[in-house]
Design brief:
By secondary structure, this protein is mainly beta. Helices cover 0% and strands 52% of the residues. The strands form two sheets. Strands 2, 4, 5, 6, 9, 10 and 11 form a seven-stranded mixed beta sheet that branches.
Amino acid sequence: QVQLMESGGGAVEAGASLTLSCAASGDSSGLGCMAWFREVPGERREGLAILNAQTGATLYSDALRGRFTISLGDAKNALYLQMNDLKSEDTATYYCAARKGPRCNFYYWTTLTKYDYWGQGTRVTVSS
C-alpha cells in the first residue's frame, strides 16, 4: 500500500513561481507512473503531467505551454511540480497520483481510473 501527501500549495500573485511536493510513503519503490492533476470545483479533474518512475520519461498537457516541470526526487519517494509564471486560471486544488508498477505507459494517462493511489490535494490560489 502507498500513501501520497501533497504540500507546497498557497496563495501567490500572478507571475510567481511555486513548487508542489508529493511525498510517497509505504511500498513506493514499485510505483510505475506518477502524475499531477488539478481540479476546479464543478469541472473535470485535469491531467497536467506524468512521469515514468523507472525511466524518468515525462509527458505534459499541451495546455501548460512549458510553464510546469514534473520531477522525481533522488530516492524516488517524492514527486515535484515546479510551476512558473502562474496565472489566475491556475487556481485549483492540485493532486498527485500514482500507479502500481513496474511498467508505466502513457496511453490515456489522463484517465483517472488508471491510477491506484491519490493524495488529498493541496490548494493553489493565484491572484491577478
